[in-house]
Amino acid sequence: MLFGSAINLEMKDAEVIYYPNFFNKNDADNYFKNLLNAINWKQDTITVFGKTHLQPRLTAFYAENKNTYKYSNIEMIPHPFEGDLLKIKKRIEKETKINFTSCLANLYRDGKDSNGWHADDEKELGENPIIASVSFGEARVFHFKHRFDKTQKAKLTLQHGSLLVMKEGTQKNWLHQIPKTKKDIGKRINLTFRIIP
Ligand SMILES: O=C(O)CCC(=O)C(=O)O
Ligand SMILES: [Fe+2]
C-alpha cells in the first residue's frame, strides 16, 4: 500500500476521505519537529459577533501567490512556501491530483487551544471548496455536524501523520470543530491546504 488505506467517512451530502497513515512515523516525527520551528506562528486577535479576543491557537498563512485570506475580521498575508511545507504540499497534490495554492497552519499548544464550529466557506475559496488537512503531533478529536439535518453528526480522531480530505459538499452542508479537552496533552500542528486562485 503506497499511502496507507483511505477511509470514506460516508457522510450525507459531502465527500470526506481520511488517510490515517498518510505519512510514515519517521517522516511525521520529523515534519512535526521541523515545522514547530520553521513556521512563523503568531496569535491573532479576531472579532466574532462584535467581540474581540485572542484566537485560542497560533496560526500562519502560506501561499504560492499574493492572495490574502480573510476570516473573522482578520486578513492573513501569505508567506511563500518553502522547505518541508513545500514538500508536504507536493505529496498531497500527487495523491489528491489537486493543486493547492495556499495553506493555513494551526498550532494547538495544549488541550485549551481549540477551533470553534465553523465552515471554511469564505468567498475567496470559491463555490465548493476542497480542503486537504494534515495533522502532526498530539491526536485531537474532530467533530462534524450537518448544517440542516440535525440527526447527522460525525466524529474522528485526527492522528499523527494523517490526511483528511474534505471534498465537495463538506463546507456547504457541514460545520466542523476541534473542541477543547481537559486532558493534559501536547502540541498539535494542523495544515489546511486550500485553493485561493
Ligand atoms: O485543526 C484542524 O484539524 C482543523 C482546522 C480548521 O478547521 C481550519 O483551519 O479551518
Ligand atoms: Fe476549518
TrEMBL record:
SUPFAM superfamilies tied to this protein: Clavaminate synthase-like (SSF51197)
Keywords annotated in UniProt: Dioxygenase, Oxidoreductase
Signal peptide: none
Listed GO MF terms: dioxygenase activity
Database matches in InterPro entries: AlkB-like (IPR027450), AlkB-like_sf (IPR037151), ALKBH3 (IPR032854), Oxoglu/Fe-dep_dioxygenase_dom (IPR005123)
Entry-linked Gene3D superfamilies: Alpha-ketoglutarate-dependent dioxygenase AlkB-like
Domain named Fe2OG dioxygenase: residues: 99-197
Entry annotated with the keyword Nucleotide-binding: no
Name the UniProt record assigns to this protein: Alpha-ketoglutarate-dependent dioxygenase AlkB
Organism: Litoribaculum gwangyangense
Source organism phylogeny: Bacteria, Pseudomonadati, Bacteroidota, Flavobacteriia, Flavobacteriales
